[in-house]
Design brief:
Elements: E1 10-16, H1 23-36, H2 41-62, E2 67-74, E3 77-84, E4 87-94
Antiparallel strand pairs: 1-2, 2-3, 3-4
Helix pairs in contact: 1-2
């Protein structure tokens, strides 16, 4: 059943250490939400690469403090925001649906 346009987005919040040991958790969360939105595999893979790069950039800026991550599923997109220590990066994946079949 489609959600109303004014429904709040589904949001996942994570706090990750900057050393990168738990960075794969972020990639898995993004992939699960992307598949839930039926995004194309190519979009998910491109998103994983972009999020890895964004995490590395923010983690370097905040070390030794944690990286705060928010993944939001919104109509037409999946948005990932990474913050900490004055660093702020957002990665947005468009809702390119997986081809049928």
């Amino acid at each position: 059943m489609p959600e109303p346009a004014d429904a709040p987005p589904d949001v996942v919040r994570l706090t990750l250490p900057p050393d990168g040991d738990l960075a794969p958790v972020l990639e898995v969360a993004m992939a699960v939400l992307g598949r839930r939105q039926r995004l194309a595999d190519t979009v998910i893979e491109a998103g994983r690469a972009a999020i890895s790069a964004a995490f590395a950039e923010v983690a370097q800026a905040v070390d030794p403090h944690p990286v705060e991550v928010e993944l939001a599923v919104e109509p037409g997109r999946l948005q990932v925001r990474l913050r900490g220590g004055g660093a702020d990066r957002t990665v947005t994946l468009p809702a390119v649906p997986h081809p049928p079949g």
